[in-house]
Amino acid sequence: LDPDEFRRQGHMIIDFLADYYENIEKYPVVSRVEPGYLSKCLPDSAPSDQESIETILHDIDQYIVPGLTHWQSPNFFAYFQTGFSIPGMLGEMLCSGFNVAGFNWFSSPAATELESLVMDWLGKLLDLPTSFLFSGHGGGVIQGNTCEAIICTLTSARDKILRRLGQDSITKLVVYGSDQTHCSFQKAARIVGIDPQNFRTIKTTWSTSFGLSPDSLRNVIYSDIDRGLIPLYLCATVGTTAITAVDPLTPLCKIANEFGMWVHVDAAYAGASCICPEYRKLINGVELADSFSFNAHKWLLTPLDCCCLWLKDPSALVKSLSTDPEYLKNEATDSKQVVDYKDWQLSLSRRFRALKLWLVLRSYGEHNLRNHIRNHCGLAKFFGELVVEDGRFEIAFPRHFAMICFRIHPSAVIDNMTIGHVLENRHGEAWKAEEVNRLNARLLEAVNASGRAFMTHALVGGIYAIRFCVGGALVTERHVAMAWKVVQEHANSVLASARH
Ligand code: PLP
Question: N6-(pyridoxal phosphate)lysine-modified residues are where (predicted)?
Answer without folding.
Answer: 298
